[in-house]
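Ticket opened by: R.M.
Priority: normal
Category: complex prediction / small molecule

The reporter submitted a protein together with zinc ion and asked that the result be attached to this ticket for the collaborator who will pick it up next week. Submitted input follows.
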Amino acid sequence: MIVKTFPLGLIGTNAYLLIDEESKEAVLIDLGGDYHAIKDELEKNNASLKYILNTHGHFDHILGERDAQEAFNVPVYVHEDDKFLVQNLPKQLERFGFVENALPPENLKTFSEKDTFKIGDKEIKVLHTPGHTPGSVCFLVGKLLFSGDTLFYTSVGRTDFEGGSFAQLSNSIKEKLFKLDDDIDVYPGHDSKTNIGYEKKYNCYFGSNNI
Ligand SMILES: [Zn+2]
Ligand SMILES: [Zn+2]
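Result attached by the on-call engineer:
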């Protein structure tokens, strides 16, 4: 599996492009900005994009998706509990003080934790991890976890935005993510990579060395 990181958009949010070398299928996780670098990477690998999955509905993770959807002709998915956020994209931008004229993706499709996606013959599992937003999820592909704004390198996502809950976030981290194997690599929505074992110890909010 090839994983490419593209920090894009208004605040440099990580978009992740996954390419399965055998089937040449690709999946994009979050897209906060211009899709052209992703198009180049797909062409370089002779791969075709299957769909766009979202870790949650915040503007900085979805801003480039309407254009990408037209360019690649692919469906866009978000957890059912974050559909309202995607549909409120213009309102979100206004609230965060950005004067950007953007449309949300069209024909938005929703999923729940019961659903799984595929890239080639590999499974993409959905872990519902509410707290940062009600419909925040992490995607688990083998030993790779795409954590959105739920878990960061030594940190966690904010819970003071609309629909956020620290109690839920705490539960998501402790009962779901920290139950995963230590050697799982974590690819967050912002900043650098980490892994589960490291965060179990050193996370500033939930690490065993800090409690
Ligand atoms: Zn967010
Ligand atoms: Zn974000």
